[in-house]
């Protein structure tokens, strides 16, 4: 397990590689990667929850909150700087998450999933009827500035947004890795295995899950704000349950072992989606479904477990099935 | 609120609750026995609706026989959907995922939902189907000066029949008791010599049948088009969660809850229609975290 210094070094290297690669990539790929990173951040939040054994089917709530916070700040207050907008998105997610977290503290498994889903659908329903926020049509956003720099031309604008998104992503990923490897982060694992044991050890399951939930909410807000900037448009579908389902899909696809795998999976999914929606417009959802089934069947710990499984000595620990009698 | 409005809300609510119950009780049954919250349930509803709409369109289009025979045909369509898709999905796909975490199982059925949505679009195309002949067949009924379609009341009757048969089947027959034993503890049941796999396949097929039945008999009331499965799964999801997962009585009461909530919203606060159901669900879960009729389960350390 890399230490904090190692994680930070990896983050710097990852950002440098992304910056160079982004410059070389064709424009469509830059756009796809930007959106993939934004969605990956939301999925990273679900991964943080999953480590504690919870899966939220309603991350669309925070994704939507972040997007609308950024959108409103831009439209109503004329704030055009991406960094401020994303920070506002994060704060919106964080506050909403902190309000909801205590309400959800007692729920586990399927009830947690359905309650988060219900909350996101309430947000979806209200936004659809809130005409001051554009109702079901949503709002359009214009291109942001980056720390005072206003890129000229569409290629420059998309590359600048990609760089900014990569920066946010790399920072968030490094912070998550550090959190996951910290004592509190590791307690999530213990909570997932056995809550009662954790309580007897003197730790509070409520706090462990609550903090994971707030982290997930803030990441959802960041991802939402970035998606809003990248798409240039926000609408209530950000909170619709199929959007949330996609994030869970991503989280399961990548598994909870590796942070980098989340973003790899996000790019893979966006590529598969943009290619198949172009070449098989009628069957791409079904293809995604088959893909998901195969992943769950043959790679139950997600893409992130691949390196471990390919290594002969690590093969066993990656599986380590614990037969539970429920 | 005038008496007429109250009556309208009451009657609309019960009518809404009837088809919701038929669909949701299938969902809750599958959860009770297999421990799977089936996201694809709405798609199965859609397949049933398409099958029935096609069958009714063919039958009434050709003027092939007595009009009432069309109802039997719709029932047959639902049965055919269940006989084909039930064993196919359970034996072909789901059984490889038993013993996984219940949230992972939700995702497995989410994948099935994605596949089924595209499959129905491939088979039936993207245009809407209408099969309104069976809807008009039973004439109109009038209550408190409000005019209702007789078919809607027949649907309430169907829901009652389904509910009574299920209750009787589960609580008063030997096979029902075996199902109850499996719901309680599948490992012990297996040790006692129960063929759990067979019961799983049958219960899942029955669940598919109930979804398809709901779809088949709702088809004449609506335009059958892509996307109906999504609305239905969310509503029936809310019903079973409110009622308590795995509880037939709970599904019945929750279907009424949801039906009344929707009818009230439509008549009094139309803008809340989109989310009133989830609001009710969140409120119920806030006070009864596992639904109205929660199952007793021992705490395992």
Number of helical segments with 4 or more residues of chain A: 14
Coarse structural class of chain B: mainly alpha
Number of spatially distinct domains of chain A: 1
Q: Radius of gyration of chain A from the CA trace?
A: 19 Å
Would you identify the CATH architecture of chain A? Orthogonal Bundle
How are the strands of the biggest sheet of chain A laid out side by side?
1-2
- Strand runs of chain B, count: 2
**Biggest sheet details of chain A:** 2 strands, antiparallel
Mean pLDDT of chain B: 89
Which CATH class of chain B?
A: Mainly Alpha
Helix percentage of chain A: over 70%
Low-confidence stretches of chain B: none
Output the CATH topology of chain B.
ABC transporter involved in vitamin B12 uptake, BtuC
Short characterization:
The complex is a heterodimer of chains A (326) and B (301). Chain A is mostly helical and 326 residues long. Chain A has 14 helices and two strands; from the N terminus they run H-H-H-H-H-E-H-H-H-H-E-H-H-H-H-H.
